[in-house]
Amino acid sequence: MKRVRVLTITDIHQRKWMYEALEQAVGLHKPDVLCLVGDFLCGGFERSGYLSESECAARLAALPCEVVFARGNHEMENWEPFARQWMRTGRTLNTPHGDATVIGPLVVVGFPCTYGNEEYFLMGKPDVEMDPAVWMPQILEQHGRAARTLWLLHEPPAYTKLCAEEGLMTGVDEWAEAIERYQPWLTISGHDHFSPIANKCWHDQIGRSLCINAGQPGDSMKELRKLHFCVIDLKFSGDEPSLPERVSVTAYPWNETLVLPDGKQLEPAP
Length: 270
Ligand SMILES: [Fe+2]
Ligand SMILES: [Fe+2]
Fold this sequence. Notes:
Layout: E1 2-9, H1 16-29, E2 33-37, H2 53-61, E3 66-70, H3 79-88, E4 99-103, E5 106-110, H4 119-122, H5 132-143, E6 150-152, H6 173-182, E7 186-188, H7 195-198, E8 203-206, E9 209-212, E10 229-236, E11 246-252, E12 256-260, E13 264-266
Parallel strand pairs: 1-2, 2-3, 5-6, 6-7, 7-9
Antiparallel strand pairs: 1-10, 4-5, 8-9, 10-11, 11-12, 12-13
Bound molecules: fe (ii) ion (FE2) (2 copies).
One fe (ii) ion is lined by residues 11, 13, 39, 191, 193.
């Protein structure tokens, strides 16, 4: 039995307190893998309380776990100084984007983001169609059922409780269709920071897929200055890439745990 612990987080937007809180969370939960699901950068300004792109890269590279980056709409030309600093550390740059990153038995699929310029993040890789029906079959062919374990998609799937019903923060139809068709165990989104907090809901279901957006508080929400993130424990039968046998997801600061495949709600995590 092989266990992999993943910590997922979205929308920390170069905020110093969030990076510091993330370092603490990694120290406490000791994940094997950290997945940053978009908008870990912000771009366009320098303000107190915010780190520079190269500071963000240096701090993340110092963490004692594998790191996976999925693109959000805020990763644009600011990706260049970030990636430059990251490469200096000699660490592997995992940027699944219409493809997958494999870490031991875990296969992580990264989706593109429908907003903004992805050219910098691609670093010479070919463009990806926005419709996953174009590229998902190839991932499934390459990785088999294991590709249905964990999907990172910055924008939430449409028509879920994880995003606004209208406006800029609505979800993406194509993501919802892909989830419905391929039924991954878990999807992690962000982008709409506030709907999960306003709806008091960090997860939804599309068929048998558990779709998550743990949200992230804004600077004005002083009383909510707690980092939102998930800790996912996956148990695999061996070291080769496969679907997990069991997954538990705990969302913070929600302090709620869900277990797959049976979806049973457990007591708050200690
Ligand atoms: Fe964001
Ligand atoms: Fe976003």
